[in-house]
């Protein structure tokens, strides 16, 4: 009988799980979403919902995974045998498959821009020229598909090596490196002229900017930033021994995620305001606005390369978890089959992701429901599958799992007090489902 793998250390698990959570949502999406929703007020509401929504859901996923000590599908089968709850795990697999198919496209863009920084092709361009360069990059089929392949190749290599030698070891290097690079970027950003304006934008709430849309956007951001609802955290926590403090681990991961979100804001907004640019540039903030800013600084391209490395490390550690959940189910925890299935599934994801990679080039004229192939995949995952999966997980934890057994599981290694447990249970049984449904109705346009 093949022995199932486990994380070697508690810190290794925390760094791997934090790496899964800290991805495009925290470093790419948060800055431009905050920029479009009033800065400080958005951050304040985001923090509130992270605590009352994301943290309870994260602990809920941890509870399922460590209770069952199985992959995302078999965890539900073990806890609720002879029922259809295991479809939550299958939904998570499908979601991660689609998510990684277009997520890898953005990862490829980052790799492409790192090459462009290295060969000097991004030096001394104007703002309009950076926008044009980005457009040419993502519309070139050879660059888009080739860089997507490189990103997935790296992801497959790491996951194929296993939990300890692959995911844990790599995350334990990338996450500290991410933090160090971020600190260097922040020091440079906050020492720019008029950097204080960017810091005020991020930290001083302007409550006049708060609208119902701002609240719903912050709620959605708190949820998506931690990649909840796709059973990734169920898979990761299934590799944990029983003596790990689950509430402390969940709090540490949420805390690290919040810290990285703030780091991203501190690295970007002071620079944006220092050069008189607008913080609401949208998704192109990283590839259009930031190169324009960094190109005007001494050694600016070095700092831009550092930011791209931060972005790449965050994207990769998230990609590891997306591939891992699928490999864990298909290989049935057999480490001897891991390598083969990592390559098979990874290559399948690459093939399925090719249309997304070509969405801004040769397939730009193809739209479905008014969206490009890339945008449709993004919308389906972010606005439908992820929140629906989180809703089902919240309902499973609070209504299907036995409350006493749940308390005993969480208490192991933590000595959680009953009062704290009952508060958490109330949040995941009543508050989280209501908030998730509100987000789903918003993104589907019901509130309009």
TrEMBL record:
The chain crosses the membrane at residues 7-28, 40-64, 85-115, 142-163, 175-203, 223-241, 253-277, 297-329, 341-360, 380-399, 420-441. Belongs to the sodium:neurotransmitter symporter (SNF) (TC 2.A.22) family. It is found in: Membrane. Keywords: Membrane, Symport, Transmembrane, Transmembrane helix, Transport. Its main location: membrane. Pfam families: SNF. This is Transporter. PROSITE patterns: NA_NEUROTRAN_SYMP_1, NA_NEUROTRAN_SYMP_3. It is a multi-pass membrane protein. It comes from the Bacteria. The keyword Transmembrane applies.
